[in-house]
Amino acid sequence: MPTLCYLTECSSTNDEILHFLPEHATAITSVYTFHQTQGRGTYGNQWQSSKEENIAFSSALPTTLFQDDDFWAMLWCTLMARDFLSHITDEKVAIKWPNDLILKQKKISGMLIEKKKVRNIHYYIFGIGINVLQKNFDAFPHAGSLFTQTKKKLDLHTLASDFHSFLTEKSKDILSIENLLHQYNSHLFKREKIAVFETNDIRQNGIIQMMDTNGNLIVELEHDGLKSFYHKEIKMLY
């Protein structure tokens, strides 16, 4: 069975990949499509993508790669996606906490990492949507694509194949949590810059300090001082 599979259409690559996993997990398996009809994002968000212009991609990573540590897996997946997109665009790509990717102030990618058990093997299912060729984002003013942000017209199949190869190669020598967290914070969007945040329907200026070892965002707020936030407890307005 091939380790990279193309689907002409599917509801969600994170669901479809479960049908392609081998009996024994000997390599990373990935699936991708250019037409995903029911994509999911983090914390129940929906991921909408234009047909034949963008990529929905999922990889199944045995949890043993990360000693069954969810935070370690999240760090690695987020950084691998960031590093790959930065490499192919030759541009700085930032991470908007917790795992959106920003290129020149626009969101170009979002991801969802789920834990699944298939044939008694535990996997992290790493799903990512990448805006590649889409030009119109009138309904999503904070979004963009690799094309709108760089004017590069990339081949979708080649991009998917290269990303699968990139993940496969990088999985052979996975860095420590400490190393990955340091890299994550070095690429954190708006870190150490004044930005506007909203908490409990109240807006105030603040400065992101870092993401801590619990995955919480540490922000120095103008009126409330240094605070720690879990997902959905704070929103950056940019």
Automatic annotation (TrEMBL):
SUPFAM superfamilies: Class II aaRS and biotin synthetases
Ligase keyword on record: yes
CDD domains in alphabetical order: BPL
PROSITE patterns, sorted: BPL_LPL_CATALYTIC (PS51733)
Gene Ontology MF term list: biotin--[biotin carboxyl-carrier protein] ligase activity
Keywords from the UniProt entry: Ligase
Occurrences of domain BPL/LPL catalytic (ranges): 1-179
Pfam family membership, one: BPL_LplA_LipB
InterPro entries with a match to the protein in the record: aa-tRNA-synth_II/BPL/LPL, Biotin_CoA_COase_ligase, BPL_LPL_catalytic
One term under GO cellular component: cytoplasm
UniProt-recorded name of the protein: Bifunctional protein BirA
Species for this entry: Bergeyella zoohelcum
